Amino acid sequence: MANEEKIHPGENDQQITLIDDKGNEELYNVLFTFDSEDYGKSYVLLYPEGAADDDDVEIEAFAYTPDENGDASSGDLFPIEDDDEWAMVEEVLNTFLADDDMQ
């Protein structure tokens, strides 16, 4: 199935502002980024700024173009529209969350 993915935890100061369809801005923290050899893309997973550890948090995921430093914070974000690609991203997220629970 998928190749081994290299997960890069988000830096404390790595944040992205998302703008919804109505023009509202919301600040998100980077949970982690990873690259997929199968799809030839980089991905970023985000959660809302100010979310408490015990809150159920909706995590946003995007493919992205890294900036000159390889970061997602100032590169372009792209929606993930392919079902198989979504399944791969969810699998990586579930592995990340399971590993995080073990620590």
From TrEMBL:
<dbReference type="Pfam" id="PF06949">
    <property type="entry name" value="DUF1292"/>
</dbReference>
<protein>
    <recommendedName>
        <fullName>UPF0473 protein FC18_GL002143</fullName>
    </recommendedName>
</protein>
<dbReference type="InterPro" id="IPR009711">
    <property type="entry name" value="UPF0473"/>
</dbReference>
<comment type="similarity">
    <text>Belongs to the UPF0473 family.</text>
</comment>
